[in-house]
Write a structure and sequence with these properties.
Blueprint (H helix, E strand, L loop, with lengths): L3 E7 L4 E4 L5 E10 L12 E9 H10 L5 E14 L5 E14 L3 H4 L16 H8 E2 L2 E2 L12
């Protein structure tokens, strides 16, 4: 099984392109902080990965994500190879994004203001709404005639 779940911050704005057939492709980079610091202080404590997203996921990335955005990515690792301009064969590895979500940011965990991209209305209070419909498992709404049921 080839499955990757990774959380970090985008290192650059997504680059969106379209194939000749009209498919959206987004190229992204992510920086992932290591949980434990290396013993050698000259080593970086962050790993960098390249990612590729396709279709609707790519369009989502281009529309809503920017450099620095914290994301959680689900995908798979994929090897690739290409011939460099000097004629040598090069290989690499990238994450093929299957799902990407906002991961919050430091201000969220500290109780600060929400970022500008998250202007959604507050979630409804479901306990308040369900109390109108049900009370002690007795239906309180208007009775429905069997003739009104579509099935």
């Amino acid at each position: 099984m080839n499955k990757v779940i990774i959380s970090g911050n985008l290192t650059r704005d997504p680059e969106i392109r379209y194939t000749q057939s009209g498919k959206a492709v987004a190229r992204l980079g992510i920086a992932v902080q290591r949980r434990f610091k290396s013993q050698d202080s000259s080593q970086p404590d962050v790993d960098f990965f390249n990612m590729t997203a396709w279709d609707k996921t790519a369009e989502f990335c281009g529309r809503y994500l920017t450099k620095g955005t914290r994301v959680v990515v689900e995908g798979r690792m994929q090897n690739y190879s290409y011939d460099a301009q000097d004629g040598t064969k090069r290989t690499g590895m990238e994450i093929q994004v299957e799902n990407i979500e906002f991961g919050g940011n430091k201000r969220d965990s500290e109780g600060g203001d929400r970022p500008a991209y998250n202007n959604a209305p507050p979630a409804p209070n479901f306990e308040e709404n369900t109390s109108r419909v049900r009370h002690n498992d007795n239906f309180v709404g208007e009775p429905i005639s069997e003739d009104d049921v579509p099935f």
